[in-house]
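Protein Record: Sequence and Backbone Structure Tokens
======================================================
Tokens: labelled as protein backbone structure tokens, with as many entries as the chain has residues.
Question of interest: how does this chain fold, as expressed in backbone structure tokens?

___
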Amino acid sequence: MFLGEHQHTLDSKGRLSLPAKFRAEMTGRLVVSKGLEKCLYVHSSEEYVGFLGRLTERGDFDPKFRQVRRFFSSGAMDTELDSAGRVSISTNLREYAELDKDIAVIGNGDRIEIWDAEKWAAYNGETTDRIEDVTRELAELGIL
């Protein structure tokens, strides 16, 4: 399970060192894809197969499912950590997430998220301001 928030730096070649505690769990192949709110998702290859599988269960007959599946798979890249524990992020994914230099690496349960540090700070501040209302709404729906 991936938890916590870590500040890192993207190097000039588009490589990002993952936190040591994340590297220990992220062995073998991994997939970096576009995420929601202009971040990137990092899944183990096995977890990504399951994630994509949940999106394909409905088939190609619903245009919304096709659109969502294309969003998450079209720019995705299959990769692995290098010997220094870094992941290379393709130009198209760096552009999508507007990554420059200062990066926030976020643990989000079954995946890692990569954010531009300023965008993460803004998003996290907004979420903190609204979290009580959001949790109350979800509790009223019986979800929490």
Summary: The chain has one domain: 5-116. Residues 13 and 97 are 16 Å apart (CA to CA). The first strand starts at residue 5 and ends at 9.
